[in-house]
Amino acid sequence: MSRDVSRAGRLSRRHLLKRLALAVSLAPVAASRPSAVLAAEAPLLSPGSKEAQAVKYVEDATQAQGAAPGSTCANCALYEGASGSAAGGCQIFPGNIDPGGVSDCRRTP
Ligand code: SF4
């Protein structure tokens, strides 16, 4: 019985240490993400920038070739802006994007 308790204690301690190691490893990623306030002040991503061209980002999804009808940044899982906002962050870009835009991740193959 005490052996089982001791083993359970080791397992939970191991589990705790694994979670701690994961949290420590992800801390730099979390720290590099701009805060919501900073992101709100960031300029809009230019469609002519290298980052935007790499994923064929356009500010007007209706003009995008290959985009599934109705697909926009505003309804993308990677969009971080508030519903109805004029601009918001995207998890793949450091600044703000137009919620009416779209990029390669929303285009059909
Ligand atoms: S990942 Fe989503 S939110 Fe970001 S630019 Fe592409 S479509 Fe827009």
Any overview of this molecule?
This protein is globular. The relative contact order is 0.17. It has a two-stranded antiparallel ribbon with strand order 1-2. It contains three helices and two strands. It is 39% helix and 7% strand. The longest helix is centred in the N-terminal third of the chain and has 31 residues, at 2-32. It is mainly α and 109 residues long. It folds into two domains: 1-32; 34-109, Irregular (High-Potential Iron-Sulfur Protein, Chain A), CATH 4.10.490.
Bound molecules: iron/sulfur cluster
Strand order of the largest sheet: 1-2
Number of distinct beta strands: 2
What is the structural class?
mainly alpha
Q: What characteristic shape results from the CA principal axes?
A: globular
Per CATH, the superfamily of the largest domain is High potential iron-sulphur protein
Main beta sheet, described? 2 strands, antiparallel
Walk me through the topology.
Elements (H helix, E strand, L loop, with lengths): L1 H31 L3 H6 L8 H5 L33 E3 L2 E5 L12
Antiparallel strand pairs: 1-2
The site of iron/sulfur cluster has 13 residues, from loops.
Index terms:
single chain; 109 residues; mainly alpha; High-Potential Iron-Sulfur Protein, Chain A; two-stranded antiparallel ribbon; 3 helices; 7% strand; globular; binds iron/sulfur cluster
